[in-house]
Amino acid sequence: MKTLVVVSHPEINNSQTQQFLLQGAKLLDVTRHHVEGLKKIDVDNEQRLLMEADRIIFQFPLYWYAAPAGLKNWEDKVLTRNFIYGDGNDNLMDKEFGIVVSTGMPLKEFQRGGSENITIDQIMAPLRAIADRAKMKVLPVFTIAQFQYMKEEQQMQLLIDYQRYLTQEYPDTLSRREEWFEREFSDRLKNFDETNCTECETILNTFIQQKEDLEQLKSTISLIKQGEDD
Amino acid sequence: MKTLVVVSHPEINNSQTQQFLLQGAKLLDVTRHHVEGLKKIDVDNEQRLLMEADRIIFQFPLYWYAAPAGLKNWEDKVLTRNFIYGDGNDNLMDKEFGIVVSTGMPLKEFQRGGSENITIDQIMAPLRAIADRAKMKVLPVFTIAQFQYMKEEQQMQLLIDYQRYLTQEYPDTLSRREEWFEREFSDRLKNFDETNCTECETILNTFIQQKEDLEQLKSTISLIKQGEDD
């Protein structure tokens, strides 16, 4: 699966969150594309990048309940009507569309009565409408709230969840997670120093062993459930 | 009442709708401000304009279920957190916020199952959230659908409705409409050639006479209703 991450941030080098996500994306086989960093928007090239991808992610900080102006400018130029749906075109049909959004506000404020008084889902409705128009498959939004207050452990969890959001098959199921972890872990082992490898391989083997135990457990539960239904 | 119309359109001279609205706004005592026409966004000056207004209108064509990038750029620069709500500030509190949006799609497509599959109200939720954050009073959206297909009579009706949206007291009631028409008609009479004045004054007097008849009718109906309640 090919993933294209269209990133928008007017001061990306000063953004802790974006720099952190950048490190996470670097370990993966994804194309990352910073719209404010483009000298000129080459519409043909941008459209080609979109067409080559299987999953397209818009990644940005929330500015006034929307993406920064840079992304809107990119949308207004690149997403021509003809490219999205005009003339019977369906260049992006069946591709997946995801959003990674960061905010400095606590998540609980994004509801009626909260200080923001609007949900993340409502905020993202216009972007989702573009995806609908292009007949894309819409993924749930990946929201990062108050990154700067996260403990290291939370940040590590975020990194894994983010990496899965970029490259794991959708919808998210336990077996797809297992598959993703096993594949990523094996891949990354190959890039490790020889010295660390023994320990890493033990971890991988334990992971695989536990995965098999889990499979065993699942079929036992399945049998019990069948008994209940009889 | 002072009205500020913040207009966003990347090619305003080529837009029939915007040129038509411009003619309508010229007859009124409103400040009109084209964001893409600004050489540089002077944040202090823009904030001063906003603070001087009683009613602030954002006017733009719908591009991908949102305002054009130019307006978002203006928002991201001018609407600093500190200006809108930071530090206990409430510079825009109790001012009215309205939206004039034009679209080339028929209005009926803006609903679930329509080709746009999203309502105008849902599309405008992020802008309304800014107004909520600033403790402004939100006016209903003024939507102009398929201006290019309107007959002359429909366009004239649109012009009046638009002018009322910019300057009539809110909420819209019959008596406020009457008041607005009488005031605007008298004002415009003053700018007419002497030659036309007799006919115009007749119209104005007829209008005032009918308004009085209507008042009479209303009190009669009111008496009948009282009778029903007894």
UniProtKB/TrEMBL annotation, chains A, B:
Residues 1-162 form the Flavodoxin-like fold domain. Keywords: Oxidoreductase. Coiled coil: none annotated. SUPFAM superfamilies: Flavoproteins. One of its GO terms (molecular function) is electron transfer activity. PANTHER family: GLUTATHIONE-REGULATED POTASSIUM-EFFLUX SYSTEM ANCILLARY PROTEIN KEFG. This is NADPH:quinone reductase. It comes from Companilactobacillus alimentarius DSM 20249.
